[in-house]
Amino acid sequence: MLDELHVFAIVVEQSSMNKASAKLNLSQPALSRKIAKLEEELGVVLFRRIGKRLELTRIGQLTYDYAVELRQRHLRYLQMLADYNSAGRSALTIGASLTTLQTTLPDLIQALTATSPELDIKAITGKTHEIVTLVRDRKADIGIVASRIDDPALHCIPLFDDHLVLVMPRNQFVMDKGQPVIGDLNGLPMILFSKGTWYRILTDELFERFLLRPDVRMEIDSFEAILRLLHTCRAGTLLPKSYLRPELLSDNDLIVIPIRELEESKRTTSLIHAEEESLSPAVRLWIDHITSHFKRPQ
Questions:
Q1: Domains of the chain by range and CATH?
Q2: Quick check: helix, strand or coil at residue 177?
Q3: Which of 174, 180, 218 is nearest to 227 (CA)?
Q4: Alpha-carbon gap, residue 48 to 62, rounded angstroms
Q5: CA atoms within 13 A on the CB side of 12
Q6: Contact, 90 vs 84, CB < 8 A?
Q7: Does the chain have fewer CB atoms within 10 Å around its N or its C terminus?
Q8: How many Å apart are CA 162 and CA 146, to the nearest integer?
Q9: Average model confidence (pLDDT) for the chain?
Q10: In what order do the strands lie in the sheet with 142-145?
C-alpha cells in the first residue's frame, strides 16, 4: 500500500494523469491500476471523474494528507539514519536515578549493546531531581527515573509500572495466621534503602499511610548489600519488584512474601528527554529503540 499511496500523492500533485505517468515513468494503464488497487484496499472512492478531469473526494483529500505526512516521516527517518551512519561510533549519555541504576539500567544497557555493540554508553547517577537538572541542562541525553516528571522543558515517556515487595530470609518468617497483611510490617526488623531517594520516599509514605513502625536496623544505598545482610540481621526489606530476579533470591536464600497492599504501591519508571528539535538524530533513534524495548513482553 505504501507504493500506491506514493503514486496517488504524485497524481494529486501533478493534477494530471499524463504528467504523473511521465514523472513516475509508468504507463497510464499501470498508473490507473495502482489507483484502482488503492481504492480497493481502502474500500473508498478517491476521485470523482467530472468530464475529462478528476476531482478529489472528501476521503480522497484525507488520504492525500495522510500520504504526504507518511512521506515526510519517511524522509525524516532516512535523514536520521544517514546522520546516524555518518556519525561513526554512536554515544549515549544516560542519567539514572539511584533506584533505576540498580533495577532498570543494567538490563537496558545489556539490551542496547546486544543490538549495537559499537554503542558507547556513559551513565551518570544521582537523585531524581539531579537527573532532571542534568537532562534539562543537556549534560545527559536522556534520563531514566523511577517516577513521572512534570516539567515544561522536558518530555516524559512512561516505560513501565512497578511496585514494592517484601523480601525475607527463607525459613526465618513463620506465619501464625493466614495470608500476611500490611500490618505485619509493624515492628518487623528491616533494612531499608537510604533516605532521599524517590524509592525511599515511597516506602516512608507507605509506612505513614498504614501507621506502621518497623524496627529499622540499617539504611543502605545498595540493593545488593541489603540482600546480603538480611540473613545476618534476621531482617526483611522492601524492594522494587523490577529488581528481583529468581537467581538473586536463590543465591541469597530469600523469598518474596506476597502482601496485597504492597501491590498498590505503584510507581512508574519513565524516560525523560529535552525538546525533540534539540536532540541529535542518533539520540532520537535511541529513544525510539528504548521505548520499543519496554513495549515488548519482558
A1: 2-86 (1.10.10.10), 91-160+268-295 (3.40.190.10), 164-265 (3.40.190.10)
A2: coil
A3: 218
A4: 15
A5: 22
A6: yes
A7: C
A8: 9
A9: 86
A10: 120-126, 91-97, 142-145, 267-273, 155-162
Q: Which cell is 136 given?
A: 534539562
- Within 13 Å, how many C-alpha atoms sit on residue 106's CB side? 8
DSSP secondary structure letter of residue 176: S
pTM of the model: 0.62
Residue pLDDT, tens place only, 68-122: 998 888 887 777 677 666 555 578 899 998 888 888 888 899 888 888 877 889 9
Phi, psi of 178 (to 5 degrees): -75, -140
Q: Whole-angstrom distance between the N-terminal and C-terminal Cα of the chain? A: 32
Which cell numbers in the block locate residue 98? 539511584
DSSP conformational letter for 236: B
Can you tell me which residue has the cell 546486544? 114
